[in-house]
Amino acid sequence: MKLYCALVWHMHQPLYLDPVSGRFAMPWVRLHSVKAYNDMLSCLKGRREARVTFNFVPSLLYQIGLYLEGKTDEFLEISRKKTSELSNPEKEFILTHFFSCHWPTMVEPYQRYVQLLALRGRDFVPSDASWTRNRFSEQDLLDLQVWFNLTWMGFAARKDPFINGLFQKGRLFTEEEKARLLDAQLDIMKELIQSYAERWTDDQIEITTSPFYHPILPLLMDTDYAKRCAPGVRLPRRFSYPQDATAQLKRGKDFCQKIFKKAPSGLWPSEGSVAPELIPAASEAGFSWLATDEAILYKSIDSPGPDALFQPYKAQIGDSSMDIIFRHHELSDLIGFVYKENDPEIAAVDFITRLNEIRRRLSATTDRPPFVAVILDGENPWEYYMDGGEGFLSALYDGIICNPDLELVTVSDYLKRYPPNKTLTRLHTGSWINGDFGIWIGGEEENRAWEVLGEARTAVEDAIKTGILGENEISNAMESIFAAEGSDWFWWYGDKFSTSYAYEFDSLFRLHLQGAYRALRRAAPADLSIPLRRPKAILPAATPVAFITPIIDGRISFYWEWNGAGSVSLAEQGGSMHRSASNLNRIFYGFNINSLFLRLDPAKKNFLEWPAGLGISLSITTAKDRVAIEAYPAQVGMDKLGTTTWRCQIKKNDLEIPLHESGIRFAIEEIAEFEIPFVFLNLIAGEELSLNIKTIQDGLVQDTWTRAGYLSIKMPDKDFERRLWLV
What we know:
Layout: E1 3-11, H1 28-42, E2 52-56, H2 58-68, H3 74-80, H4 88-97, H5 103-106, H6 111-120, H7 129-132, H8 138-151, H9 161-169, H10 175-201, E3 205-209, H11 217-221, H12 226-229, H13 242-260, E4 266-267, H14 278-284, E5 289-293, H15 294-298, E6 313-317, E7 320-327, H16 329-338, H17 344-362, E8 371-377, H18 390-401, E9 406-408, H19 411-417, E10 423-424, H20 444-466, H21 471-484, H22 487-491, H23 502-519, E11 536-537, E12 566-569, E13 584-591, E14 595-602, E15 614-621, E16 626-638, E17 644-652, E18 655-657, H24 659-662, E19 665-668, E20 672-677, E21 688-697, E22 700-705, E23 709-714, H25 720-726
Parallel strand pairs: 1-2, 1-8, 1-9, 2-3, 4-5, 5-7, 6-10, 11-23
Antiparallel strand pairs: 6-7, 12-13, 13-14, 14-20, 15-16, 15-21, 16-17, 17-18, 19-20, 21-22, 21-23
C-alpha cells in the first residue's frame, strides 16, 4: 500500500495596518510575499504530481490587497526616498532596521552587505544611531537601502535578469535601480493571488483558511476553557464571546471564497487550537474538515494504536460532526527547525526515508492506505535555509514523486478517496503547543491584555443596548475588536518569545482597542496609552555629565546652554512604527541641585510650524507621586511678539495645580524648554523618577517617547559633578 502524504503550508501575518497613520507598521507582508509566498508556488512549476495544501489566513490576503490599492509601509517609504533627501531620523531608522533579517543566510553571503554591517557595527544598539550615521556616505546608505530589499527577494525572483544583475553588481547602486527593485516587489505581489487561484482551479493545490484575524477560537468562546488543559492556570477576568468565534470563522471562509472565487472546505484553527465547542461552530460556518496536532489526538483517545495518527477521524460532538486530521509533530518540526542546518539533498533523503519507514511499519497493521499530515509555517523557515529552501523543497518534491510507495495529496483529495471510518466522541481542549493555551493566556501581561480586550468588548455591548449609535459605528468598533482578538498580540507578551518589535506588537494591539472606543464615540481608557509590556528603563544616547541652568525662553540662547545634558533620539525606540513625519526629533534632559530641565527639539524648524491642536504631554512618575504636564497652543493665535501663545495644564495625583503654584516654568518657540522643581516632585537626592513624553492631537496620542519603556532619571546631590570629575 502507498503512504499518502499531505503537506500543508501555513501562510500567516497579523494585521499590521496602523489605524492612526493608515499605513502598515511593519513590512513583513510585503517582504514575505516576494520571498516565501512567491517561492512556494514557483517550486511547484513542472511538478504536476506535487499536490500540496496552502492555508491562507484572511488577514494576510486582506493586506496584500491593501498594498495593491496603494497602502504602504514606512520601510518602503524610506527605501524609496533619495538618500540626498533623507533626514537624520530617517538615516537612523535605516541603520536600526535595514539589517532585520537572518544574518548567516541573508547578509553574510554578500560581501557588500557584510561591509555595511561592519561599518554600522554588529553590536549596534539604537542609541548608537545618532553618531553612527556620520560614518555612512550617501552611497553607503543607498547601497543599504537596496541590499535590505534585495536580500528579501526569494529564489524565484532572483531568476529575473534584472534582480540577478543587482546581486552580481553588489555595490554602487543607483536611485533608478533602487526604484526598479521596489517596483518589482509590487509587481510580484500583483500576481500572487491570481497565481494561487489558477493552481487551485487546476487542482494541483488546495487552499484552506483560518478565522479571519487568527484568534485562538476556544479562548474567544470562553477563557475559562484554558482550565481544562491547565487546571492550575491563573486566568484573567472571564472573556466569553462565542459569537465572535463564529463571526471570525464565517468571515474568514467568506473572504477566502471572495478572493479565490472558490470556497475552502478545510480549516486550520489558529495555532491548531480546538475545543469540543469548535466542531458545531466550524460545521455551521461551512467547513467539512479541520486539522490540529497529534497531541490533541493522544489526549482524546484512551488507547492509541500504532496506526492512530495515520488516519483521519470523524469528530462527533452532539448533533454536529466533521472530519479531522492530526499533524505529525516530529516530521513537521524537522522541516521547520532541523533541516535548515543540513545539506538539502541529505535532508530530503532523510525525510523520505522516514516516510518509507512509516509505510513499512504500518503495512501489516492497517487495511487501508495510511495517511500522514505534515503541517507547518510556510514562510518563516526559509529565511534560515541557505538557498531560501529551494534545494530542499525541490529534492523533497522530486523524491516523493519518483517513489512508487509515496504519493502527495491534498487533504480534501484523500478524504474524498478514503473517508474516516473511526469516530471521536471526545475532543481535548488545547493547541499544537504543549496541548494547552499557555502561550496566549496565564501570564501577567497576557492576562492584562485579555482584560483590556474584555473591557472594550463590553463597551460595544453596552453601546448596542443603548441603541444610540448607528450600525456603521457598531460595525467599525467590532472590526477593531476582531483585529485585537488576533493571537499574535498575545504571543509576544510575556517572556516566552522575543522579537525586536515586541513593543510594536503591543502598540498595535492597543491602537486597535483605541479604535473601538473612537468608533463608539467614547474616550479610550488612559491605560491604553501605556504599554502593557512591562516597561524597562532605556539607555539614553548620552547621560548628564554636569549641572546645567538653561534660560527658559524657547530658544537656543547660547551655544553651551545645554552642554552637559543627557539626550534621547527617536532611534532609541528601536521599532518600526516611528513615522517619517514624527513631530519630535530629540529630547535633552539635565538638572542642577534644584530643578529638572527638559528640552524638546521639533522635527520641523520650530514649534510655529506644528499642526493646529497638536500638544505635548509629559508624564513623570516617582515612588510617591504622578505628575502630568500638558502644553497646547492657545486658540488666540499669535501674541504681539509674533510667537504662538501656549497654555499649560498641570495635574499632580489627578488634582489640577495652577501653574504659578507649581513653580514650573516653560517656553515653547524654536524649541520647548521646561524647568520642573524637584521640590514639586517631592524628590530628595538619590531618588528616581521615570519620564514619558507624548504628542497628542485632538485627544489622540500621535507618538510616545520612550515607546519601549521609560527614561529613568536620578535626582543628583551636591557632589554629582565632583564625583564625575574624579572618575
